[in-house]
Automatic annotation (TrEMBL):
GO biological processes: base-excision repair, AP site formation; DNA alkylation repair; methylation
Catalytic activity: Hydrolysis of alkylated DNA, releasing 3-methyladenine, 3-methylguanine, 7-methylguanine and 7-methyladenine
The protein's name in its UniProt record: DNA-3-methyladenine glycosylase II
GO molecular function terms noted in the UniProt entry: alkylated DNA binding; DNA-3-methyladenine glycosylase activity; DNA-7-methylguanine glycosylase activity; DNA-binding transcription factor activity; methyltransferase activity; sequence-specific DNA binding; zinc ion binding
Root EC class: hydrolase
Domain HTH araC/xylS-type: 94-192
Length: 500
């Protein structure tokens, strides 16, 4: 077996063991290619195991395709979760991949994108080949083609809409690229569509186990905004898009115990579909590798028991950056319930009603910065200072002084935001944690964190907590979720003293 690649793979023995045992925990962390069939598979492929001397391992689907292998029709590599080893943090590759997910290559040249992450295009290409086994454009094209393959397999969307949804502006270029990668034209894969045309499509969004979907829903349910989103014990739903042509989504567990979520999506603009799915994968942290996170954190006596108790805890993101910013400002030094009440009032007063409610309970869009920049939010109960902070943030976003570009390094993002009146370190880090899904964001001034990390001892100072958390990098945001949950559970089980 050839393991002599210049980009990272799990240990070859681990790859071999995972392949033979069909271990779902390694799904997306490497791909198995078979020289006798010229097909590449997920580690959990149900097909009979090939002979060891015919096996090649690749760190990415793009690397396997660059080597001349085509995706398996049985295990479907398009369903693999991403690999957060290079999707997270501030590394050049992670920042570039975030740009790609946001559609940067739709408008930027490769040179311009490389400049955005602070390197030359030649160096960017070298880094991608070293780490992912393929240059940036090949990684980008493979991602689009795998999404197209999923749409062709799981939906009845017309091929022209599949091309648009997967980021191709030309049906001719889409057909040619798909034929080259899959050795068959798109329409041949579409011979027996698995769904019938309708207003919504259903897609499978895979994750690596363990995954605590109930915990993410519980976190979001306590913060859900009536009219904008509906969250119950089993699902998340939201309205989005334009008021006259709204879209909606509904996310729940995939039936049958598969390691996947079931997405029902109505998207009036097919060209936005790939970006919407990427946004949902980020929001529900579907590409995290709980093994690597656990390995990095379990040496801590503070975190070890929490990791054992909740091994599938993930980082809940937010749908929209400005919405998270407003929520963070409203949440300064007040309870979650109080902040939600204020946010609900803002939605009811300034949110945009959709033309026709697509789903019961989904009837308003959260107001954008242009809707709040000149209004007096004291009318809905905000203090003078917080009302001014929300207006200031809205103005700064409209002026371009701040933004939610996903490729920003954490320190740069925090520095830009704390320069605004009313925004401190806690608020900036909370926004980085929820809006950017940055794995190392850490609102160290948080009182609950400082108490929970003390393990029943004297409350830690912010400085002491930061010193303790140095050993938790680059996964400090996950420690926030564990400590918040432990504090919440402790509060729920502590008997209340009777009032006098």
């Amino acid at each position: 077996m050839d393991h002599a690649h210049d980009y990272p793979l799990p240990d070859p023995r681990a790859c071999e063991q995972a392949r033979l045992s069909r271990d779902a925990r390694f799904d997306g962390l490497f791909f198995t290619a078979v020289t006798s069939t010229r097909i590449y598979c997920r580690p959990m492929c149900p097909a009979p195991a090939p002979k060891p001397h015919n096996v090649r391992y690749y760190a990415s689907a793009a690397a396997a395709e660059a080597a001349g292998f085509r995706p398996c029709l049985r295990c479907r590599p398009e369903l693999s979760p991403g690999n957060d080893a290079w999707q997270r943090g501030d590394h050049v590759i992670a920042r570039t991949l975030k740009l790609m997910e946001g559609g940067a290559l739709d408008d930027l040249s490769m040179d311009a994108m490389a400049e955005r992450v602070g390197v030359g295009s030649r160096q960017l290409r070298r880094l991608f080949v070293e780490r992912l086994g393929a240059p940036p454009m090949s990684v980008h094209t493979t991602r689009r083609l795998l999404f197209a393959k999923q749409l062709l397999t799981e939906t009845a969307l017309p091929v022209t809409q599949v091309a648009l949804a997967s980021g191709f502006r030309s049906i001719r270029r889409f057909n040619a690229a798909f034929l080259q990668a899959n050795r068959m034209p798109p329409r041949e894969l579409r011979r027996h569509p698995r769904a019938t045309p309708g207003n919504a499509i259903t897609l499978k969004l895979a994750y690596r186990p363990p995954y605590d979907f109930a915990a993410i829903l519980a976190f979001l349910r306590g913060r859900a905004l009536p009219g904008v989103e509906v969250v119950d014990e089993h699902s998340y739903a939201r309205v989005f898009g334009a008021a006259d042509t709204p879209g909606w989504l509904h996310l729940s567990e995939w039936p049958g115990g598969e390691h996947a979520l079931r997405l029902q999506l109505h998207c009036p603009q097919p060209a936005q579909m790939l970006h919407l799915v990427a946004r949902l994968r980020r929001m529900f942290d579907l590409d995290a590798n709980p093994q690597s996170i656990g390995d990095a954190l379990r040496e801590s006596p503070v975190l070890r028991p929490l990791l054992r108790k909740w091994p599938g805890l993930r980082l809940p993101g937010g749908w929209d950056g400005f919405e998270i910013a407003v929520r963070a400002i409203l949440g300064q030094q007040v309870s979650v319930a109080a902040a939600r009440t204020l946010a609900t009032r803002i939605v009811q007063r300034y949110g945009t009603p959709v033309a026709a409610s697509p789903v019961p309970g989904l009837e308003r869009l959260f107001p954008g910065p242009e809707a709040l920049v000149d209004v007096d939010l004291r009318e809905v109960g905000l203090t003078t200072a917080r009302a001014a902070t929300v207006r200031g943030v809205a103005r700064a976003l409209l002026d371009g002084r701040i933004d939610f570009r996903s490729e920003q390094p954490l320190d740069e993002f925090v520095a830009h935001w704390v320069a605004l009146p009313g925004i401190g370190e806690w608020t900036a880090h909370y926004m980085a944690m929820r809006a950017l899904s940055h794995p190392d964001a850490f609102p160290a001034a948080d009182l609950i964190l400082r108490r929970a990390a003390a393990q029943g001892g004297a409350e830690l100072s912010t400085k002491a907590l930061l010193a303790l958390a140095e050993a938790w990098r680059p996964w400090r945001a996950y420690t926030v979720m564990h400590l918040w949950r432990s504090a919440s559970q402790a509060a729920a089980t502590t008997p209340r003293k009777p009032r006098a």
